[in-house]
# Entry
Amino acid sequence: MKNLFLITLITAISLTTTNCSSDDGDSRPDNLSITGGVWKLSTFSIDGKDSTSTLGACELLETYSFTEDGKFVNKYYEKDATSGDCKLVSTLNGKWVTDGTAGTTPRFKLTFDDGTTPSITCIVGISYLTYAYDVDTSTGKSSYSYSFQKQ
# Structure
């Protein structure tokens, strides 16, 4: 019974903290901003199944940071085969623009400067940023989803 109460309490708290909206007619709540911090990878799923445990500790260091002038930096890390240390292997720069809203949750389109990485659309909440994409494989289509926590 205590577990049921705890689960209900946590659910209620999370719903009240993530479903905020502005009362001034603006479709974007004031506290939902893509800028002002570093977003660190927190979860990864394939076809809706949590696959975070398949990532190494270094891969979980991936970050995005956004500036007010519409730019972003994505940093990706991998384990060095020789030393075993986490090593920065990719720094991608790009531009972001507002790409509408999903209800009151803003969407942002990220376009990478390298010209080869596909643009992605992410959704931003109070403390999360998430994006997903599909990949056609020889066994069918797979959906990948990434969530980042604001640090």
The longest strand covers residues 86-102. The helical segments are 2-18. Residues 46 and 144 are 5 Å apart (CA to CA). DSSP finds one helix and nine strands in the chain.
